[in-house]
Design brief:
Length: about 350
């Protein structure tokens, strides 16, 4: 999920290149930052024992934030393509170099989290699940719910995408083929949801959910298509900033008004693709600032550790000190988020960077 990012001058899209010629879009860090905050908000709301008062925010908006994982998938496909699409097409990178870098990027922090969780749980099931986690190949298991780092299902899907990325490059070799690939991926997802996953056709239907690569495939393909049109889209957004922002907000509001009548695939694709496109040419301070750049760079680590910090926060028993359920939710959220950011920062920048074998 990581893409090195910079802020471009105000007259240009927030895109730059490093010494290797990679393109970087500054606003995408901001999107990752807000997405991870939304996911933490959703998990705290879902798991806290004493719920806050019910309103549109707590019954519709925050529960929708669980879908921010699909925005991460779009950004992952887009960001990976910025670094490797042309190099793979031109055979300028070996499989060894490509996959080794993926393991180095993902495994060290995840391995630490798995070891902590296994120690906390300490049973045979945790040992077996932890081994599967450490291979990063657990996303290939069909219909398996792994309890060790439960939120790690997302990493399992992402790593399957990494495995398939050379094939993905073939599928989006040109714009025409990419649109055809999107149509096929949508059909495969809908068949999985409404046929293989339906009791209408099977007594024991397949558990076809978001931990399946075919369920998530359309989001990766959308990220790839946005990459193919990135220069034109970035130029248009940069030239029409206010119109692009107003359009993105209007599309988001309109989609939320129709959530009950739209399938998840449609609503998430519409909203997240719109904001991804806006981010290509955006240099506004909301998406481009020091705080969002920092949080965006550790978003994966915060995602992987935030539920552990939620459990630690639970040991504080804030409910015994705070009677107001709304205030309890807010303080639990802040404690979880701050704890996760601090833990991710220390482990990523001090522990992993200082211990050579973890690198």
């Amino acid at each position: 999920m990581k893409t090195m990012l910079t802020i471009a001058p105000s007259s240009m899209p927030s895109c730059s290149s490093n010494n290797n010629g990679r393109e970087h879009y500054g606003a995408l860090d901001g999107m990752r930052a807000y997405a991870i905050i939304g996911i933490v908000m959703m998990h705290v709301l879902s798991d806290i024992a004493i719920k806050p008062s019910e309103n549109y925010l707590t019954t519709t908006v925050i529960p929708f934030f669980t879908n921010f994982v699909f925005l991460f998938m779009m950004i992952s496909a887009f960001g990976l393509s910025c670094g490797y699409y042309d190099r793979i097409k031109a055979c300028h990178i070996t499989p060894h170099a490509f996959y080794l870098k993926r393991y180095k990027r993902v495994l060290p922090f995840f391995a630490i989290m798995v070891i902590i969780d296994m120690t906390w749980t300490h049973n045979l099931g945790a040992l077996l699940e932890g081994f599967a986690d450490l291979t990063l190949c657990f996303g290939l298991y069909p219909n398996v719910k792994i309890g060790v780092i439960g939120v790690g299902w997302f990493l399992g899907v992402i790593f399957v995408f990494y495995m398939l990325y050379p094939f993905f490059v073939f599928l989006i070799d040109n714009r025409r083929r990419a649109w055809g690939t999107l149509a096929v991926s949508v059909l495969l997802a809908l068949i999985g949801i409404y046929y293989f996953g339906s009791k209408q056709y099977f007594q024991q239907p397949t558990d076809f959910e978001r931990d399946n690569i075919l369920y998530c495939a359309p989001y990766f393909v959308v990220g790839g298509i946005v990459y193919l049109y990135r220069r034109q889209l970035a130029a248009w957004v940069s030239a029409h900033k206010l119109l692009a922002l107003a359009g993105a907000c209007a599309i988001t509001v309109a989609t939320f008004m129709c959530l009950d009548r739209l399938v998840e695939l449609a609503s998430c694709t519409i909203i997240f693709a719109t904001w991804l496109i806006y981010g290509l040419g955006s240099n506004d301070v909301v998406l481009n600032n020091r705080a969002t750049r920092y949080l965006g760079k550790i978003s994966m680590e915060v995602y992987l550790c935030h539920m552990m910090l939620f459990r630690v926060t639970g040991l504080m028993h804030l409910e015994k000190l705070i009677a107001n359920p709304n205030l309890l939710y807010i303080l639990t959220l802040l404690a979880t988020l701050i704890g996760a950011v601090a833990f991710a920062h220390v482990v990523k920048f001090y522990v992993i960077n200082k211990i050579k074998w973890l690198q």
